[in-house]
Amino acid sequence: xxxxxxxxxxxxxxxxxxxxxxxxxxxxxxxxxxxxxxxxxxxxxxxxxxxxxxxxxxxxxxxxxxxxxxxxxxxxxxxxxxxxxxxxxxxxxxxxxxxxxxxxxxxxxxxxxxxxxxxxxxxxxxxxxxxxxxxxxxxxxxxxxxxxxxxxxxxxxxxxxxxxxxxxxxxxxxxxxxxxxxxxxxxxxxxxxxxxxxxxxxxxxxxxx
Length: 209
Hints:
Blueprint: H1 6-16, E1 19-23, E2 28-32, H2 35-44, H3 52-63, H4 72-87, H5 89-115, H6 122-139, H7 151-169, H8 176-182, H9 185-208
Antiparallel strand pairs: 1-2
Helix pairs in contact: 5-6, 7-9, 8-9
């Protein structure tokens, strides 16, 4: 019932109860905004709190076996690879320069919006700033989704955003597996958007090989 205002709904619940349980027909979920619990889950006893098969099944079509989806040895392998790459001084220094430039561009956009009394979608801007930074660091490509000057970047950003929304919908849609098998509805849209995302990603990979 609250899916269309999900973030506001969850924020309201977190204000009332730092830790709470949402009970549904087939599963129960526990949520927490208590800093002590968050530290325990993400640091103190991290190995005990994996993503699990349920989340992996939901997310793998978009994220594959990426670090945000997998557990155990696969997660450790990817974390080790990422930490090795970003520990090199050259890449670390380059990353800092890129992130600072993107932050400055974001600040400029917000400043212009404030001066002209214009409403902006801050979540969308944060996502685009992150996407622009990551692509510049990882692939050396200027997507520029914040300003929209790169048509290819805009297409990719929209497709990734749409695919993420369709993936999120799976958590409340009990029929998503049937829709995927029949390639209809939200699952058909998801497949089309994933295809668009993969086209650009593989194109960038081939450029670098």
